[in-house]
Design a protein that fits this description.
Elements: H1 2-33, E1 41-46, E2 49-56, E3 62-70, E4 77-80, E5 91-92, H2 96-102, E6 107-110, E7 114-115, E8 118-119, E9 125-126, E10 132-135, E11 139-141, E12 144-147, E13 155-159, E14 164-167, E15 176-181, E16 185-188, E17 191-192, E18 205-210, E19 216-222, H3 235-245, E20 249-252, E21 261-265, E22 268-271, E23 276-277, E24 280-281, E25 290-294, E26 304-305
Antiparallel strand pairs: 1-2, 1-26, 2-3, 3-19, 4-25, 5-10, 6-21, 6-25, 7-10, 8-9, 11-12, 13-14, 13-15, 16-17, 16-20, 18-19, 18-20, 21-22, 23-24
Length: 306
């Protein structure tokens, strides 16, 4: 009897140890299941806002999420994360979902680059939600500028009439109501401006592109860092994607684990892409600022799936 008791104890300890060892793999597998399906989809989300998901297989697996926004549609209005009134503090970091929920937006993406940032492990990273964050380049929210221009960073500007412009100079016109800074210009006058010297490996990316009139905006969110699911695009491929959509100008925004696209639902924010923060899929990264949109609901169900 005593021997049988020891056998049971050993089995219990072995089962417990096995569960501990398997838990991280099971958790990661569960997160992978939560990612959007590798299938094409197109859907009218709101009046003037259409979402398209593209599953690409060659030359590598890539998941593209493209939002087309008619800036002249009734109810469509941009919002950049407002700055804080306290001196020396620009914003408090928050996830894109939290930004959307806080301001009751219908759509939102992460925004521009920010300081400070590091990522060492799933629990050791900065910023956490609520930590001070300092967006780089010109940032304007509701007509208030709280971060100054940088000449080496391009900026996306929205006038009070809601029309958009992109400036390589990093500075917006005086009548700008919303503005957010990215990095390099990808497209000017409908032509690529990225050189092969700037080319790098496939990566998660976010781009904003506009037509010549400035009344149509494309947001291009690219998933990456996820082998066999989505490995990302190069800058050249991102540029071509923008031109193929019809962009006259395009700007590269903050990429990597920051790339997040969310939509407002009745029960809160829903993530449309597969962000990968601290190497964990479907985990949102708190970031320094965001670009969001208000919009009116559509009464017609125009969802199409393949």
């Amino acid at each position: 009897m005593h021997h049988r008791y020891k056998v049971y104890i050993r089995r219990f300890l072995l089962a417990g140890l096995s569960s501990l060892l398997l838990a991280p793999a099971l958790f990661y597998g569960w997160l992978c299941i939560l990612r959007p399906s590798r299938s094409d989809r197109q859907q009218v989300l709101f009046q003037g806002i259409v979402y398209q998901r593209r599953a690409v297989s060659q030359p590598r697996p890539v998941m593209l999420h493209i939002v087309t926004i008619d800036l002249t549609a009734p109810g469509v209005k941009a919002l950049v994360t407002p700055g804080l009134p306290e001196k020396g503090k620009k914003t408090n970091a928050q996830t894109t979902s939290a930004f959307l929920n806080k301001f009751k937006l219908q759509l939102a993406v992460n925004g521009g680059y920010f300081h400070h940032f590091y990522e060492k492990s799933p629990w050791d990273y900065y910023p956490h939600s609520g930590d001070p964050s300092y967006p780089l380049g010109e940032v304007i929210s509701n007509g208030h500028r709280y971060s100054n221009p940088e000449v080496n960073k391009a900026v996306l500007c929205f006038a009070q009439n809601n029309l958009a412009q992109i400036f390589a100079s990093g500075k917006c016109p005086q009548d700008t109501f919303q503005a957010i800074t990215g990095q390099e210009i990808l497209v000017t006058d409908g032509k690529p401006v990225i050189s092969h010297l700037q080319e790098n490996k496939p990566y998660p990316r976010l781009a904003a592109a506009i037509n010549r009139e400035g009344n149509k905006l494309w947001l291009i969110a690219v998933d990456g860092k996820q082998p066999f699911y989505s490995e990302g695009l190069t800058l050249t491929e991102l540029t071509k994607t923008a031109i193929d959509l019809g962009a006259d100008s395009a700007i590269n925004m903050d990429g990597g684990g920051s790339v997040t696209l969310v939509v407002g639902k009745a029960d809160g924010a829903k993530i449309l892409n597969a962000p990968v923060h601290t190497k964990l899929p479907m985990r949102e990264r708190p970031v320094g600022n965001h670009l969001g949109f208000y919009a009116l609901p559509t009464s017609v169900n125009t969802a199409k799936s393949k």
